Amino acid sequence: MTPKLILASASPRRRELLAQAGYRFEVQASCVPESRQPGEDAIRFATRLARQKAEEVFARRQAAAGRAETAMVLGADTVVVCDGEVLGKPSDAADAERMLLLLSGRTHHVVTGVAVVWGSSAPPAVEIAAELTQVTVQTLSPEEVSRYVASGEPMDKAGAYAIQGYAGRWIPRISGCYFNVVGLPLALVASLLEGAELRMASQLSPAKDLSLR
Questions:
Q1: pLDDT averaged over consecutive 10-residue blocks of the chain (213 residues)?
Q2: Nearest to 64 by CA among 113, 104, 6, 128
Q3: Is the Cβ–Cβ distance between 25 and 189 less than 8 Å?
Q4: In this structure, are strands 71-82 and 107-119 parallel, antiparallel, or unpaired?
Q5: Residues classed as catalytic
Q6: How far is CA 119 from the centre of its chain?
Q7: Which of 11, 104, 115, 210 has the most C-beta neighbours closer than 10 Å?
Q8: Which helix (H) or strand (E) holds 116?
């Protein structure tokens, strides 16, 4: 029985990247609030949210089906870290401007937590990992920042920018996975999914090919 792959995210960027990598999947956004706990560092924050998103969607699907479903659910969450401050999505235009001016002329880190939840019985198995990429932003003027925020592009992005969009002109270099900055580190995701797929295959039927691609 071939396992379904479900992306527990409404992000169009993650959906595009996963499709670009050749995966067939369904999309079911999670209902987990993206709030940080006191004292939680970026990696723990991102991986916790990724796991909670995947687990919430997995549990919801199992309950709706009324039976065990052979499925793998992929959750992800991306945050930006600059000068010790963890930046998620901006709350409004003023917050977006504040974030961009903080990043201006500096190097920051993008952290994406990834979780895969799978199984055909309870409790499901979970694999968690994180990817980190270093990003350098050139010095920005307040006028540039205001115009960019007015475009609306930063409003649903961690750190208030999209490297694959207009803001790409301000980023002279990165160190690490580019796709991580977009929102989904594909090589890491592929590794987790392949590991989960092999484990599911050994549990269900070692002779069957459970390839997702």
A1: 84 95 94 90 96 94 74 95 94 97 98 92 86 98 97 95 96 98 97 90 54 40
A2: 6
A3: no
A4: antiparallel
A5: 77
A6: 21
A7: 115
A8: strand 107-119
